[in-house]
Amino acid sequence: MTVTIKDIAKLANVSTTTVSRVINNKYEGVGEETRKRILDLVKELGYQPNALARSLVTKRTSSIGLIIPDIINPFFPDLARGVEDIASKEGYSVILCNTDDDPDKEKKYISLLNEKRVDGIIFTGASTHSHEHILELIKSGVPVILMDRRIDYENTFGVFIENFKGGYDATNYLISLGHKKIGCITGPLNTKESEERFNGYKKALKEAGIDFNEDLVIESNYKITGGADAATELLEKQNVTAIFAFNDMMAYGVYKAAKLLGLKIPDDISVIGFDDVQISQILEPELTTVKQPIYDMGAESAKMLITRIKGKKIKKKIIKFKTELIIRESTKDVTKVYEEVKDE
């Protein structure tokens, strides 16, 4: 039988208001002996507060929504862990929604979270041209934090990275190794993060005096299969010496394509990814990549959202984390190769 506040009050010989105050850690006006008697009864009887009843009074559910586009991509579980760790520490539960990068599923989850009366939402949007449903959510007054993927709207709060610098550093490193024909496998270019990484790629080429060649650029989908298909085309038709993939998942696809074509990394083709998820360290050879502080981004997003939920002032609406080039074994210096060809 479910134990209620009334049961506790009757056994403790106090009012239900007094029991409620003790349970909610509001001890003002409650004696130490009474407080101890109530807490002992709560423990002895296994009383559990009614979350629904409490939410009707406080207008809070102590829950937040987390919407991500692809749970299979190891980047997003790391983000989710950062969010959940902070949320749990602050007394919030997390409702995880995976959209499969589908805008229609995204809209359904927004409706579901609104029905659940979550206190706020952390959002990584699908790769779509339209963000009207996200803007409507933001304008509705629900606290929203955008994470990883930006949208064009001035009144947003978000946690992102310096994508331009990451794209520039990856390309510039390949150029420093003597590569001139550098293939580029982008994510969907309608997303800000892909657009910024692409601009970094082009900037590095321009500074090095290397002509931009659109035939060396293939727009893909952040998935292994997309990376493999794009890499196959670049390796068979364009004879590139290096490939910069806009995430580690597509870089894994490059590995797959190279193996099927009988090419060795890095002897025949150099590869750089973007993310530095844990699997990248156990590939053979280990993947050179641009590191994002993935866990920290998730944790910071949760901190920002909970600050907003509590009605506290946020100093910075937009936080950008720095990237770091992690050099491992999938890239090779080909300067001598070019010099030998030139001498011939």
TrEMBL record:
Pfam families listed in its UniProt record: LacI, Peripla_BP_1
Protein keywords: DNA-binding, Transcription, Transcription regulation
Family annotation (InterPro entries): HTH_LacI, Lambda_DNA-bd_dom_sf, Peripla_BP/Lac1_sug-bd_dom, Peripla_BP_I
Domain HTH lacI-type: 3-58
PROSITE patterns with a match to the protein in the record: HTH_LACI_1, HTH_LACI_2
Entry GO MF terms: DNA-binding transcription factor activity; transcription cis-regulatory region binding
PANTHER family associated with the record: HTH-TYPE TRANSCRIPTIONAL REGULATOR GALS (PTHR30146:SF109), LACI-RELATED TRANSCRIPTIONAL REPRESSOR (PTHR30146)
UniProt name for this protein: Ribose operon repressor
Native species: Gottschalkia purinilytica (Clostridium purinilyticum)
Lineage: Bacteria, Bacillati, Bacillota, Tissierellia, Tissierellales
